[in-house]
């Protein structure tokens, strides 16, 4: 019997997990306390669980290789899957609040690893609340790219505090980003696009990339095309609003 006949959650033709077995609520409340394991510090993140080919044993203390890209609210993981082959030596992780969606991404990565030996070993996902636990996963100056693609808009003013980009959260992101690192944001909600751009523009530790820099960065092209949400917006002919900023050293 074929393996996928035994496991109906995997597609018979592609071997990839089928989304209908991972239905999730449209939203999760980022301010509520969910129950999932949280590493007490970045040193306690077990890299061997996430990247077994790079870290065959749980003892990673001597390793200088660390996660460099974080996709915040990664959804079904489309961006990470594209980045994994574009940057095969870079460790990257998706952070996702919804458990079933996280499970789907896990299965997707495992299926891709099986179908493509040696590839997709640098990509992983974790179920967590990025609004609370970023410093548990990353050290000061660790990350070189952070992604916030089509984040939940939280339209009502009283819910703006649930937005994953805010003045206060940018302080935290500036802490875990190295100088020169880039934050990528995109949305199809104009008001949220303005909000994210204003937060970044007004923050002393970020500056906008120039149009030439945006043109030269291969990752920028993926922002609207690689994620499931971006593809949905493109199918519906929707407009997108992008803000891409670099972490700079504070001026003295
Ligand atoms: C609209 S979806 C976009 C998904 C993906 N970035 C894309 O473009 O297809 C937003 C995702 O962010 C997740 N999310 C919202 N708040 C979060 C938080 N505080 N921590 C982690 N994930 C969060 C949601 O569960 C949802 O999957």
TrEMBL record:
S-adenosyl-L-methionine binds at residues 73, 96-97, 129-130, 149, 227-229. One of its GO terms (molecular function) is tRNA (guanine(46)-N7)-methyltransferase activity. Pathway: tRNA modification; N(7)-methylguanine-tRNA biosynthesis. Its EC number is 2.1.1.33. One of its GO terms (cellular component) is nucleus. Belongs to the class I-like SAM-binding methyltransferase superfamily. TrmB family. This is tRNA (guanine-N(7)-)-methyltransferase.
